[in-house]
Amino acid sequence: MSVGTYYLPALPYAYNALEPSISAQIMELHHSKHHQTYVTNLNNALKSYSTASSSNDIPQQIALQQAIKFNGGGHINHSLFWENLTPASSPDAKTDSAPTLVAAIDKTWGSVDSFKATFNKALLGIQGSGWGWLVKDAQGLRIVTTKDQDPVVSGEVPIFGVDMWEHAYYLQYLNGKAAYVENIWNVINWKTAEKRYKGSAQDAFSVLKASL
Amino acid sequence: MSATLLRTSALRAGIRASAAKPMAGMASTSFVRGKATLPDLPYDYGALEPHISGQIMELHHAKHHQTYVNGVNAAIEAIGDAQAKGDAQAAAKQAPLLNFHGGGHINHSLFWENLAPNGKGGGGEPTGKLLTAINEDFGSFDNLKKQTNAALAGIQGSGWAWLVKDKTSGTLGLVTRMGQDPVSGNLEPLMGIDAWEHAYYLQYQNRKAEYFGAIWEVINWGNVAKRFEK
Ligand SMILES: [Fe+2]
Ligand SMILES: [Fe+2]
């Protein structure tokens, strides 16, 4: 059995394109170092898994699952994250770009502002490294938080995610994570969010297939 | 330190009591032993340079640790309010916050004390009974460092690695903890290394292995030995 190799996807904008909400230095380290490490370690784990699988080494296959989950999750989460951000000057950064989604948000939380307040509270409540996601499931829209790099892969459609690891904001915001959470709204890509909302989980994850 | 830690370990007894049976736990006096306070650092913010920058030390102590102190006090107050109203549910809701912020307070208080400026108590090698125990349980001091660094590198997300002593057998061991979970139960924490990104990011960014290498230059083995022999 041959194993696909995952590659670091190119960012759909320049490292400095999200300034001043997210600094170029953060974006460059986050993409070229952190995300790259998840990709490298995922490929290594998958290769070892393939070897273990072809030699029917079940204990080794089980031992590798956590590494696959963590690094695969890191790859999935960051790939989705880059695509659900956009420069603040882009029309995609306006909620007007997501009419259907905004209608659903209004229905669920009353208004976009009250949704944002709820989302922010969830993000700031994360204890340690993790992510916050707006997802769609059979019941409708939901806010979920996940720890470390646990990905949202139980059938929900990830609409957009916010990385709450300290590496995502520390060089610019230091311990002031509330300001990071406030400013991330300037660069959310509502056009991508609308597209994901209208599609399936498979569609959202298509960015990953492209890197196989 | 010991006064602060005594108070917080009393709090942790309170956490356990409240998790098991909230009403009974709240009736005890464990929650009203006074407020947690930020301990002074036993050295200047810049004293651990170049291994840990002064900027990191200042933010880490004055902001991060202070936030845990505030958090644990807020949780205690909320539990007190809930107790006054006989609202067990509201009290139980505070348990994760009490554990997180209380753990953060305990862990950082221990951490500051097991660091010291290089050449002034920090760095070098352990001696005496502690070294004998390290040689017995890890083979050598070098092995202990290697195994600790491997454990630190293996932490997936924010957490800590600890050199611990088993209270029954007296043997040394290595454990990792996620988030701010404190070392508890039958294990006595002797030396901890903070592997949260805030502990190194401003200086080392993603190169965390460099931070794990440098921290040995500022480990206060005298302090670790004192905890070991206690
Ligand atoms: Fe990240
Ligand atoms: Fe810390």
From TrEMBL, chain A:
Subcellular location: Mitochondrion matrix
InterPro entries: Fe/Mn_Superoxide_Dismutase, Mn/Fe_SOD, Mn/Fe_SOD_BS, Mn/Fe_SOD_C, Mn/Fe_SOD_N, Mn/Fe_SOD_N_sf, SOD_C_sf
Enzyme class: oxidoreductase
Reactions accelerated catalytically: 2 superoxide + 2 H(+) = H2O2 + O2
Binding site for Mn(2+): H30, H78, D163, H167
Keyword annotations from UniProtKB, A to Z: Manganese, Metal-binding, Mitochondrion, Oxidoreductase, Transit peptide
One Pfam family linked to the record: Sod_Fe_N
Domain Manganese/iron superoxide dismutase C-terminal span(s) in chain numbering: 100-196
Keyword Transit peptide: yes
Residues annotated as domain Manganese/iron superoxide dismutase N-terminal: 5-85
Keyword Mitochondrion: yes
Molecular function in Gene Ontology: manganese ion binding; superoxide dismutase activity
Similarity comment: Belongs to the iron/manganese superoxide dismutase family.
Assembly: Homotetramer.
Name of this protein: Superoxide dismutase
Lineage, top ranks: Eukaryota, Fungi, Dikarya, Ascomycota, Pezizomycotina
TrEMBL record, chain B:
Swiss-Prot/TrEMBL catalytic activity: 2 superoxide + 2 H(+) = H2O2 + O2
Domain of life, per lineage: Eukaryota
Record-stated family: Belongs to the iron/manganese superoxide dismutase family.
GO cellular component labels: mitochondrion
Short name of any one Pfam family annotated for the protein: Sod_Fe_N
Coiled coil: none
Record function comment: Destroys radicals which are normally produced within the cells and which are toxic to biological systems.
Domain Manganese/iron superoxide dismutase N-terminal, first and last residues per copy: 37-116
PROSITE patterns named in the record: SOD_MN
Organism name: Emericellopsis atlantica
Keywords: Antioxidant, Manganese, Metal-binding, Oxidoreductase
Name of the protein this chain belongs to: Superoxide dismutase
EC class: oxidoreductase
InterPro entries referenced in this protein's UniProt entry, alphabetically: Fe/Mn_Superoxide_Dismutase (IPR050265), Mn/Fe_SOD (IPR001189), Mn/Fe_SOD_BS (IPR019833), Mn/Fe_SOD_C (IPR019832), Mn/Fe_SOD_N (IPR019831), Mn/Fe_SOD_N_sf (IPR036324), SOD_C_sf (IPR036314)
Domain Manganese/iron superoxide dismutase C-terminal residue range list: 126-227
Manganese listed as a keyword: yes
Residues reported in the UniProt entry to bind Mn(2+): H60, H108, D194, H198
Classification lineage: Eukaryota, Fungi, Dikarya, Ascomycota, Pezizomycotina
Keyword Disulfide bond: no
GO molecular function: manganese ion binding; superoxide dismutase activity
Needed co-factor(s): Mn(2+)
EC number(s) given by UniProt: 1.15.1.1
